[in-house]
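Section 5.1 Outputs to date
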Amino acid sequence: MLCFALGIVGCHYLGDVVLLPVAFLVLAFLAFFSLALKSSLKFSVFNALLVFLILFGLGSWRLKLYKNVEQANHLLNYDLDQVKAYKAQILEQPKRKARTFNVVLKVYETYDGVEWKRAAGQVNAYVDTLAGAELNYGDLLFVEGKPQETSAPANPGEFNFKGYLVYQNIHFQQFIGKDFAVIGHQTPNYFMRQALYFSGRCQRVFERYIPNERSRAIALALVLGVKDNLDDDTLRAYSATGAMHVLAVSGLHVGIIYMLLLWLIKRVGLGKRQFRWYVAIFSILILWCYALLTGLSPSVLRAVTMFSFFALSRAMFRRSNIYNTLAASALALLLYNPYLIMSVGFQLSYLAVLGIVYLQPKLYALWETKYWLLDKIWAITCVSIAAQIATGPLSVLYFHQFPNYFLVSNLFIIPAAFVILMSGLALLVLSFVPLLAEALGWLLSRFIWLVNVVVDWVSAWPGSLAEGLFADILDTWTLYALIIAIALFFVRKKLYYLKVGVGFALLFCINQVNHKAAYLDSSEMAVMNISNTMAVDFRQGTQGKLIADSAFMADAERQRFHLYAKRLLAGVSQAPATDALDFPIAETALGNLVTFNGKSVLFLASGNQVKLNEEVKVDFCVVSADSSFKLLSNPNFQPAQVIVVPKLSYYKTNQLKSLLEKQSTPYHIVLSDGYFEEVWFK
């Protein structure tokens, strides 16, 4: 599995250069097969290396084939400027966003103004809320306009949405709005249609019998994996307490169901060896029925596949190797979709299970108690510690935070998740008996309300969430090497592993210090590339100050998406509300004048009608309003460089560009030229 995954990663980052010739792979397989037939151990090492090479080659070719599906007619081969309209099919159930519906479209024909042509490719599209409310999985659409290749991140450290879509084989995006029409319906996948039907019915049951809106949102997320109704406050509270994993149906939930099934099977006397195949088939059937209820979401499919392999392993082997079973399930998933190796959910799921399987028994054995309750508390604590150790470095790499009270929250959130999951499934079963369903729904609503109260309480504790943690890929690998070395030290009791661990700890510290030192002796002015926004971020060392329009200053979510990652790289406090950098800001008739690092930065005021009779010079002039054009054409106004933020319309921006070129004034238009930064070193 590791060699197969390495082949996928190599092909993704290095391209076709890693593809081994098919003839070579065939010859290598024949050589392996012929040597394997010999009973001698003489060629065992050579055979092992040979099969690893074959698996690496198969991994790289699997990704190549996955990317090349319908490549001849792919939109990447088109001149998109010639596309006037296209026909496409909705591949997933539309997802409600704040102001739009998000749909994934599979294009099958394009129109260039003369004729329709076959085409292929997927588009991540957004449609108007009212127009998109009636769309369904499998609808065929006629769409006006043309898709565009997905944009790369506009600012440093910003979430790479383009890369995220590439991992799903989606290379295009478009805001459609109302410029479409439904022209038919054709179900892409029968099982997915049935899954969405059952999931929709289950959602309606929850909407009917769970009265509290916030409790209903938690139940939908925890039981069915539907997170559309979760509000920002709930997400932040669960994230701050380390309980976010219960809101995404995954290995925990499927594991609870699987373990409960095994317990029930033993209670009815079917746990004997002769019934092992019946138990395996029954368990797998129940798990996949649950997957249907959740709409066959990717996280549930991963978890159900994993536990299906566990069930088969229990039936096939008296003593199965759980690590091989885990690897076999991962290999099956990568054969189906090689880009899953790039999925954060895939990585965290398998690392969490691996950590629990290996570390939890060793941690649990460190302390024994004769009291049942203390024993269960210790068992849950060991599971939490093992999972956090295994996933912590990766969580810091992707999310830059760590929940400090995860041990406290998991003591109640894991048992609570069990109660909510079982009660939610019972509610679905009893929905045909309205009186019982209403009673159970009310009890479930009150129980979730109580859980939310505890989660909110813990999240409000001082220092509940460590934010602004920086780690790059080297740091992450170093931390995992450190964890492995320390684990081996405790298991094998050899000082050598502790010395290796200390070496990796020093390497981690050196890398962190080098990263921070690169920013300590510098100052920076950065003009952010954010649509319809003026945002200029100043930094001196590790202190910052943001100057932005009122809408962006009040929008914490947009700040998190566009600004926080950039500041994180430099070690600056991420929230503008805690900015500590101070420099002179003078209010003038022309606008606010900033003096920073010996440079003058003028933010031209809107509606500026000042007539200059004397020469005015500034180093940088930030333009965010078209009413400044008159001042910019005044020969007495002489900025060394003009920076145009993305608040002007495309037409006005081109007008200003022509004016500046005519005057030979240096300029930077953020909308077209991208993110702007000026850095000064001591």
